[in-house]
Amino acid sequence: xxxxxxxxxxxxxxxxxxxxxxxxxxxxxxxxxxxxxxxxxxxxxxxxxxxxxxxxxxxxxxxxxxxxxxxxxxxxxxxxxxxxxxxxxxxxxxxxxxxxxxxxxxxxxxxxxxxxxxxxxxxxxxxxxxxxxxxxxxxxxxxxxxxxxxxxxxxxxxxxxxxxxxxxxxxxxxxxxxxxxxxxxxxxxxxxxxxxxxxxxxxxxxxxxxxxxxxxxxxxxxxxxxxxxxxxxxxxxxxxxxxxxxxxxxxxxxxxxxxxxxxxxxxxxxxxxxxxxxxxxxxxxxxxxxxxxxxxxxxxxxxxxxxxxxxxxxxxxxxxxxxxxxxxxxxxxxxxxxxxxx
Length: 342
Prior knowledge:
Strand order of the largest sheet: 1-10-15-12-11-16
CATH superfamily of the largest domain: Helix Hairpins
CATH architecture of the largest domain: Orthogonal Bundle
Number of helices: 6
Helix content: 40-55%
Distance between the termini: 83 Å
Number of domains: 3
Shape: elongated
Mean pLDDT: 83
Number of strands: 16
CATH topology of the largest domain: Helix Hairpins
Strand content: 25-35%
Radius of gyration: 48 Å
Largest sheet: 6 strands, antiparallel, barrel
Order of helices and strands: HHHEEEEEHHEEEEEHEEEEEE
Oligomer: single chain
Structural class: alpha+beta
């Protein structure tokens, strides 16, 4: 028995299992990394703002003719840089020149009518003076004969004769006055027709000048498909020019970030078309509204809340102006990245 007890005492103790720390060490490390990363993320977001949901924007100026006609020539090519006033295209001017010539001939004809009627009006004035002189003479004859009739030095027949002559003279004066008024109205009407014709001529000359399409702003011709022989309709855009002086960046920031941004905030911009180079800019303003649904012809911008099937937080548009826009490397719609210290 003692030997058995001694052997039992000398037997090694059974191995102990690993501690809880050692058993779940990888899990604790992963949890620690997650906690540390979360703390860094939220701490960084409190002092640093960044978005890759940004793009370059400018103004697309649509050139639409004011008159309709056949395109005679196109003076630019696709992607060409133009300055304000450069010729773009020409609509066949011959129909419009014919209208100008027609209006000029019409004005000449109407001015001749005015001259004839003015001469007639001058003749009416002379005839009226003569009729009024005859009326005065007839009135004197009537007064003389009437006074002589009262003392029986003139007969009743003589009185009746001078009375008829006085009435005829009065009627002649009335007729001449009416004719003078009619002729004056005709002269006024003829002059009004000349004024209308001159206005129509001005419109025809304006339409003729509109056959020359010129660039209203400096920029770049974009997606040009216009060719000679095409029919241009008034009001329908033919050429698009991307304004080279209105470059800006539209950055979509989360609501809490956008709400804390003030105009003038300094930012840094990275263009995917010009990598590894940072550009300075400042916030022009924050959009005050976005559309919740995407519909055509809406005034509020729509910012998609999902990307690759991931639901994102709502974002607001922040407009950023470049302090020194580069001469090259800016493309409307190109991607950009924006960050700044809050």
